[in-house]
């Protein structure tokens, strides 16, 4: 079966655009854009295997598009179609990491060959670099408090985000309400949510918990796991860590996040900048309407103050601290 690549074609010339689409029929799914506003919008998406650009508007040109695409995802390939051979243009295109340059008129055979080559290389790079995240919490809102900003940052980078919550938090509120709140928070993040039915305050680190976490790991195949630290006063949090570290023994990257009940023995050695994602984190936590007014640590000012405190370890940014249990280099 042939691979179908996702290609963005930015081509104001309707006839040339139609010709290129016909050449790539059956080989690529082509989205054809003709105006500058749409060009800028679509260029910043992360889904493309290849972007073909042939624009010279006053507001945006091929070099602008190249910068936008590479900023969104450096693995996406860029192919520029140009009218004239200008040395300064070629040098600038190379500086901005354009992957290919074709001059008009286009040769069908060579053009299609190069398009498929670049799209295949891009797809392989993205697959290799793709991170699959699994954040594990004992109760609803644990993950959002501990690593919500980090998850939002990873989501913005194109990572696949999954949240596993082991209990519905029945000891701290109505489990059905908390379930709906967890679903809303996950939706705000754009994450897949998995919910267990372990009893709140009685989660243990035994085989049942390990096997349940393993079943989710086998399903989502994470490259990175985030969960509670062992240095925590809450017994559910400690048990979740102990079960997760066994269940995730084959996962190459494993990190532990801060909880309101973390002890002074919690000693982070990585400090993740969430300056651009603090609002997203607070919005996710605000989804827990049944909890935020009775849990002082979920108040917006406390969330920001906590992030600000840890900023002393990383240029006074807003920070989520983590313990690295293992990390692939």
UniProtKB/TrEMBL annotation:
<dbReference type="Pfam" id="PF00072">
    <property type="entry name" value="Response_reg"/>
</dbReference>
<dbReference type="InterPro" id="IPR001789">
    <property type="entry name" value="Sig_transdc_resp-reg_receiver"/>
</dbReference>
<dbReference type="Pfam" id="PF02585">
    <property type="entry name" value="PIG-L"/>
</dbReference>
<protein>
    <submittedName>
        <fullName>Transcriptional regulatory protein CusR</fullName>
    </submittedName>
</protein>
<dbReference type="GO" id="GO:0000160">
    <property type="term" value="P:phosphorelay signal transduction system"/>
</dbReference>
<feature type="modified residue" description="4-aspartylphosphate">
    <location>
        <position position="54"/>
    </location>
</feature>
<feature type="domain" description="Response regulatory">
    <location>
        <begin position="6"/>
        <end position="119"/>
    </location>
</feature>
<dbReference type="InterPro" id="IPR003737">
    <property type="entry name" value="GlcNAc_PI_deacetylase-related"/>
</dbReference>
<dbReference type="InterPro" id="IPR024078">
    <property type="entry name" value="LmbE-like_dom_sf"/>
</dbReference>
<keyword id="KW-0597">Phosphoprotein</keyword>
<dbReference type="InterPro" id="IPR011006">
    <property type="entry name" value="CheY-like_superfamily"/>
</dbReference>
<dbReference type="GO" id="GO:0016811">
    <property type="term" value="F:hydrolase activity, acting on carbon-nitrogen (but not peptide) bonds, in linear amides"/>
</dbReference>
């Amino acid at each position: 079966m042939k691979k179908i690549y996702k290609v963005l074609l930015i081509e104001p010339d309707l006839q040339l655009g139609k010709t290129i689409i016909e050449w790539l029929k059956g080989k690529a799914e082509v989205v054809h854009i003709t105006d500058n506003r749409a060009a800028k919008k679509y260029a910043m998406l992360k889904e493309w295997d290849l972007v073909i650009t042939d624009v010279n508007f006053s507001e945006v040109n091929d070099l602008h598009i190249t910068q936008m695409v590479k900023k969104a995802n450096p693995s996406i390939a860029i192919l520029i179609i140009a009218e004239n051979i200008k040395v300064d243009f070629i040098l600038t295109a190379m500086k901005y990491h354009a992957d290919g340059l074709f001059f008009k008129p286009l040769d069908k055979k060579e053009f299609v060959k190069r398009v498929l080559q670049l799209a295949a290389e891009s797809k392989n790079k993205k697959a290799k670099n793709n991170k699959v995240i699994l954040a594990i919490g004992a109760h609803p809102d644990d993950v959002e408090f501990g690593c919500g900003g980090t998850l939002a940052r990873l989501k913005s980078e194109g990572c696949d985000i999954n949240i596993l919550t082991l209990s519905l938090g029945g000891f701290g509120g109505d489990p059905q309400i908390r379930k709906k709140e967890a679903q809303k928070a996950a939706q705000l993040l754009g994450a897949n949510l998995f919910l267990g039915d372990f009893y709140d305050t009685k989660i243990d680190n035994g085989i049942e918990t390990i096997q349940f976490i393993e079943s989710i790991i086998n399903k989502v195949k994470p490259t990175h796991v985030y969960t509670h630290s062992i240095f925590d006063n809450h017994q559910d949090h400690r048990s979740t860590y102990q079960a997760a570290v066994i269940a995730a023994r084959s996962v190459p990257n494993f990190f532990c996040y801060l909880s309101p009940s973390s002890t002074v023995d919690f000693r982070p050695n990585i400090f993740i900048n969430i300056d651009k994602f603090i609002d997203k984190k607070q919005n996710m936590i605000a989804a827990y309407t049944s909890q935020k007014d009775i849990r002082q640590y979920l108040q917006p000012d406390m969330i920001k103050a906590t992030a600000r405190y840890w900023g002393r370890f990383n240029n006074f940014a807003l920070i989520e601290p983590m313990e690295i249990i293992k990390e692939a280099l």
